[in-house]
Write a structure and sequence with these properties.
Elements: E1 14-20, E2 26-34, E3 37-47, H1 53-81, H2 92-105, H3 111-125, H4 136-148, H5 159-178, H6 208-216, H7 222-234, H8 238-242, E4 249-252, E5 255-261, E6 268-272, H9 275-279, H10 299-312
Antiparallel strand pairs: 1-2, 2-3, 4-5, 5-6
């Protein structure tokens, strides 16, 4: 007699689970498994030891709330697979606060700028605007408001500052797209010519005469002077020079080179060193391969030391370590020219 195949048990896409905590409570979370991927959502709901009737009643209410959230997630998953979009109703200003908190968790220092943007949005549109009401017209009107009506203390602010308030809202809307709060960022539908643009900045450059003046001017910290002039002739960033070790320096068929991974781009490069650059590299002596080439203080202290040195050399332009990379003579300037 053939065996009757039992119907297979349908697996739930979302399961409610508990995690034991050190204090004796149990944390409730959702174990979500869909399309071969597993994720977890901690509900910030807790089961407490049932030491009396009140504790049992509290746990019953907690479990009811957790199961309601579980059912909600199952409906969202089912609707998504059926092509039915479901997006939670979120106020714009509430999302801006959430965006500010998330930025802080990522180590971003734009909290004050986000606070100002929130105040501007409240003045512009009130505090009852929903995220699903943000469209191209809203974004264009926000830009127009910044350019024509926003006057803190009765004065017009610079385009640089206005661009910051545009950038903050744009970033928050991009984050909302990633969080599935909105489908797309309406700013993408606005022509770049209609957006607030940063004013063109004038870049300062080092001249040969200024380098000559720096070479002839003593400095309090000789290692910083050497590192700055080394950068003038090889173009490395301050972060790359601080991290430079003797193991990164090698000779290839008579040519000194650096093998470095750029701190900013993470791209490895093999940089040939000119005789002028080598002139400002310290002697290795008995240093080990892992030792740093330049014995330098922090980037902040480096730039503090550079300013009086530049003034003593007669240079009155805005001066920082980054300026050492703004020149056109990394390999063309000869020692005889100095």
């Amino acid at each position: 007699m053939p065996r009757i195949k039992k119907p297979s048990k349908i697996k739930e896409p979302v399961r409610l689970r508990m995690k034991e905590l050190a204090n004796g409570n149990k944390s409730l979370y959702l174990d979500i498994y869909r399309n071969g991927k597993r994720s977890y959502e901690y509900l910030k709901l807790y089961i407490i030891p049932e030491i009396d009737h009140n504790a049992r009643r509290q746990n019953q209410a907690t479990m009811a709330a957790a199961n309601a959230l579980k059912s909600k997630r199952i409906i969202q998953l089912t609707n998504g697979e059926a092509g039915i979009e479901h997006r939670e109703k979120v106020f714009l200003l509430d999302w801006m606060e959430t965006y500010k908190e998330n930025q802080a968790k990522r180590g971003k220092k734009d909290g004050n700028q986000i606070n100002v943007t929130i105040r501007i949005l409240k003045d512009f549109a009130g505090d009852r605007v929903m995220m699903d009401q943000i469209d191209k017209t809203f974004c264009q009107n926000y830009l127009d408001y910044l350019l024509t009506e926003y006057r803190p203390k009765g004065k017009r602010v610079s385009n640089f500052t206005l661009h910051t308030y545009y950038r903050i809202l744009n970033g928050a809307l991009n984050a909302a797209v990633r969080a599935d709060i909105i489908k797309s960022n309406p700013f993408t539908k606005i022509n770049n010519s209609d957006k607030i643009r940063l004013p063109e900045s004038k870049r300062s450059y080092m001249t040969i005469e200024e380098v000559r003046a720096l070479i002839a001017t003593p400095m309090k910290n000789e290692a910083v002077k050497q590192a700055y002039l080394f950068s003038c002739f090889c173009g490395l960033r301050i972060s790359d020079i601080i991290g430079l070790r003797w193991k990164d320096v090698f000779v290839d068929r008579g040519q000194y080179r650096l093998a470095v991974s750029m701190q900013k781009t993470k791209e490895p490069i093999y940089l040939p060193l000119s005789p002028e650059a080598l002139k400002w590299m310290p002697e290795r002596g008995d240093k080990m391969a892992e030792d740093h080439v330049f014995d330098l203080p922090s980037p902040t202290m480096i730039n503090l030391l550079l300013k009086p040195w530049a003034r003593a050399a007669g240079i009155d332009k805005r001066f920082s370590f980054h300026l050492s990379r703004h020149n056109s003579f990394h390999f063309s300037l000869k020692t005889s020219s100095l």
